[in-house]
Amino acid sequence: MASQVNGADPVDSMDIIWRDGDKVRADRFLPAVELQDHPNPPLPALSTANLLDWAAHHEAIDKSLMTTDREYSWWNAALAKSDKPRVQVSRHGPFPLLPTNSWPDAMQWPTRYWSPDFRLLGTSAEAPAGCIGLTNDDGNTRSDYYVDPANDYVCVKLVRWTKHGGDWVKTRDEVLSGLHRVAGCVVAAVKQMHDYGDQTLHTSAYSETTTIDLTPMNAADYPPGIFDPVSLTHGATVVSY
């Protein structure tokens, strides 16, 4: 997955996620930061093949690995503020994915692992055709979820609101598009996010586009050792919890 802020910028972040059942590996790259120091050669055109080739010749800023009973979090030496990388090892938590909001699962079903008191939304101009609207609020903030029954109840639109002076003011919306099926599962091709900013907090509006490319893998397709903890712990400072 690759994300761009405000459209014209280079790719700001890129996540390469490998998954085989309960085993998950994710490597994160920050091309925009790297290009500030090394503008040549430029980042290739935004395509999966080009970005994977670019990543093969650059170091990730952090890596995550989940096995059946352990989670490994790796940071490069610069991020660890050390002369070598750092790895934190902990017991695998109760959820099947590592703690991040960038997983396709988390984007498509944002309330999958929690159960707030949802209410059905009535008619709304925000609602995409054919979708069911659900909402929950805590009195000062509100989130509206529009799920598509025809596509495995994927949340194709999420709108967040904040109450100012008794009125609900839209603060952010997220829209998924390009829904298609991969190996029988619904997958979005693009997530568009727009944050409207908040004058009271002196924050500016901005937009972010995330491109998702999901490819089924055979056993022989995975890079050698991609799920081996030694690929992260070798040469690193290891801390266990």
Descriptive overview:
This protein has 241 residues and is mainly β. It has one domain. Helices cover 12% and strands 40% of the residues. A hairpin with a 7-residue loop joins strand 1 and strand 2.
Question: Which labels suit this protein?
Answer:
globular; 14-stranded mixed beta sheet
The averaged pLDDT comes out at 85
User: Order of SSEs, N→C?
Assistant: EEEHHEEHEHEEEEEEEEEHE
In terms of quaternary structure, the protein is single chain
Can you give the helix content as a percent range? 10-25%
The number of helical segments is 5
- Which residues sit in consecutive blocks of at least 5 with pLDDT less than 50? none
Structure summary:
This protein is mainly beta. The protein has one domain. It has helices at residues 31-37, 48-55, 77-80, 104-108, 230-233; strands at 2-5, 13-20, 23-29, 62-66, 70-75, 86-91, 119-120, 132-137, 141-148, 154-164, 167-177, 180-182, 185-187, 190-195, 206-211, 237-240.
Write the layout of secondary structure elements.
Elements: E1 2-5, E2 13-20, E3 23-29, H1 31-37, H2 48-55, E4 62-66, E5 70-75, H3 77-80, E6 86-91, H4 104-108, E7 119-120, E8 132-137, E9 141-148, E10 154-164, E11 167-177, E12 180-182, E13 185-187, E14 190-195, E15 206-211, H5 230-233, E16 237-240
